[in-house]
Amino acid sequence: MQSQQYLQQRRKFAAAFLAFIFILAAVDTAEAGKKEKPEKKVKKSDCGEWQWSVCVPTSGDCGLGTREGTRTGAECKQTMKTQRCKIPCNWKKQFGAECKYQFQAWGECDLNTALKTRTGSLKRALHNADCQKTVTISKPCGKLTKPKPQAESKKKKKEGKKQEKMLD
Questions:
Q1: What is the pLDDT of residues 15-49, one digit of tens each?
Q2: Looking at the whole model, is its pTM more than 0.85?
Q3: How far apart are CA 66 and CA 43, in angstroms?
Q4: Phi/psi at 30 (nearest 5 deg)?
Q5: Residue 144: CB atoms within 10 Å
Q6: Domain residue ranges of the chain, discontinuous segments joined by +
Q7: Which of 15, 42, 106, 140 has the greatest number of C-beta atoms within 10 Å?
């Protein structure tokens, strides 16, 4: 009996050993199939950072345009280049076409100056533009008296035209 148990244990051990060898061989061939990628060579450059001019629209004062970039360095292949850019047409151009502000609601009308004002804080500056942190704008107040509703004045005009036709 003991010899049969011994033979069964020996067979199990041999099967486990062969399975282990097979797995090792499979892993080794899988790793051998992979090509080792050479690490990218880091280029050391004497070139400086690009310095970009403001965006100049192709036509008008907003829309598509170009900006020029320059950099310095003794071994730079390229020291100047032009890049396409866009100036949004809905931005407040009086504060710089590349500065975007978040504005508060309009304030109350100042009766002395007949102006109302609001303040805007810098939301975004395109391409490292030099922008003010906060800006203030003002505009004339609307009419202080309420205008007559348009519906009534249109009715009166129609009635006047009808009367003219009847007279003719």
A1: 888 888 888 887 777 666 666 666 655 455 678 88
A2: no
A3: 29
A4: -65, -40
A5: 8
A6: 51-87, 93-140
A7: 106
